[in-house]
């Protein structure tokens, strides 16, 4: 793994002094200037909830992305990220763990949304680490091309693509079934796929808002279906892509998940990401009691220039006309995903929300155990399973 140049080290040091907290776990939970700003916005009575997400995005750009850009990170938000994967991932603070167990079994990783953007860059890092990688995505042609590119660049031939539409419980079941036919153990599950800010209520196959249905329910179901395979691994990790948007609401808009009339494009997206953080907390608490060999964490990748913005014409216009220069590249955004997936530094840490390879303050609303339990019950009911099914 290549080392940071003196210039890169100096820039990192300066940036840490501006926005980061010390690296001890307890200190990290204290929060950086950005964390404190996001938490303040999420709990403020003076800012309408519809403006909170935009306010947090602007806070991130001005407190993080612009200083980072000025200090030397060459992230102009362009989609031609393959050339930067080596330097970007190499700049991350992790040493890749062994991917072949003592018994000679190659470790298995499952990654959703790996055909492009953050998922593709994370897939590149995981494949480079030597995992048998299974990518699930609904973009079949793009996914097949991604697998071929990953094989060519990493020389890892143990990479394959399976169709997965997280907006269909039937497709999720079929995908999980294919996984179980290929392996009896999953060492790494990365729930990364997602959609954002859909202007109108767009139902999934089962009638749920696509933002909540794909971002949370689809991944909740996939995790439940694969959990026994994950538990069989000597040491396993579950990593979920959340967002700073989870600060944007104090509660989940349950009526808006199934009703077009109650649908709120911004609140529903923020709620779907709040659900991700809450699910991580609930699952981590359960696994700590029954399977401490499995850890689960979530992260905010940063405001990145990816296809996620294309779901909203306004966001697409803003990110196409100039604003993309202050958004991160997918390669930069994938660093924390790769870090949580592969780093030995995070072994044994579970239930946390991360940003830029550090534990961050969560939206206080995500810490409420009763709200977490309500979410789990709702999710099981949506799947047609008994609400008291244990995680």
TrEMBL record:
Keywords, comma-separated and alphabetical: Oxidoreductase
Molecular function GO labels: oxidoreductase activity
Family: Belongs to the short-chain dehydrogenases/reductases (SDR) family.
The name this protein goes by in its record: NAD(P)-binding protein
InterPro entries given in the database record: NAD(P)-bd_dom_sf, SDR_fam
Source species: Linnemannia elongata AG-77
